[in-house]
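Question (not urgent): is this output format expected?
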Amino acid sequence: MDPVTVTELSNRIKRHLEPAFAQVAVTGEISNFRGAHHSGHVYCNLKDEGAQLRLIIWRATLQRLKFELHDGLEVVITGKLDVYARRGEYSLVANTLQPKGLGGLQLAFQQMYERLEREGLFEPDHKVPLPACPLRIAVVTSPTGAAIRDIITTARRRNPLVEILVWPAKVQGEGAAQEIARAITRLNALNDRLHLDAMIVGRGGGSLEDLWAFNEEPVARAIYASEIPVVSAVGHEVDTTIADLVADLRAATPTAAAEILVPELAGMFEHADELRLRLGRALRHGLDLWRERLGNLRARLGALGPVAQVRREQQRLDYLWEGLQSGMKHRLAAARDRLQGAAGRLEALSPLAVLRRGYSITRDAAGRVLHDANEAPPGSVLVTRLAEGELRSRVE
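Got this back:
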């Protein structure tokens, strides 16, 4: 046997192996995964319990994947064998990848859900309440689909005064998620001029693949960042999309979204009448309370005013004056009684009273009262005091 060069042998191997394994399906576990190379390609290993081989995923193939690759993920890969003759290496070049035992879209949904949940995009505290009576509603959807017709028809039937602004966006296929996300972001940026009260984001029903744009991360983050309340209306009641979980409210269908957002005009009139009656009753009750409070305040203010104080002082002065007069009268009466008693006693002791009983008092010329006849020798001039008048006499 004639010897051959390494290069010739490697090329022979390449020529024999590549056609023989131009289309293969291989199952194994991803290992040594370090993310995409700066070129956008992925170079890692595919292994099982007994062996491993080098795996190459070109950038175009990687971009079509809906789920994320990681070490330990079991996958089913279709592709071809590629021999790199210069190094004597062979690799499996992937054309398609599917998670083993689980559809790629289901795995992608699960991975997206877990990541966004950890970030808090589904938190109820972030959701904002919908307006009670919106006047302008934007709809992000396909302008030719059944969804927009259902929304407009339902809104006009319930309340023709509500304006519907249609913002066209691709809702299926390549680039749909980016268009929907841009539409949501743009409407928020223009809302100072548009004055939107709410936004409906959705489409009609379809397969999981048809609805996949509403499971994409750009749409989820645009809805989360929206300051305009968002109602998700993806017409597929069985499956819940990521957009449904992030939105402020989920509607089962586009028609249901219009029914939720747009109140019936007749019902609004009835509600307005009821509110008017309740407001009238409340105002009357409030006025009665204010009148009562005003009366109380006026009474309190009057009681604190100078006129009231003067009146109170006048009443107090009148009371004191009446008390003084009563006290004076009582004291005068008591003094009068005492005076009369003293006068009676004095009268009883008065010499005049004795004289009126027939007695008399005799004095000599010097005015001394005589008690003994010997005190008046003959010739003495005497003055005798009677009850009425006096007598002058001379002693013989």
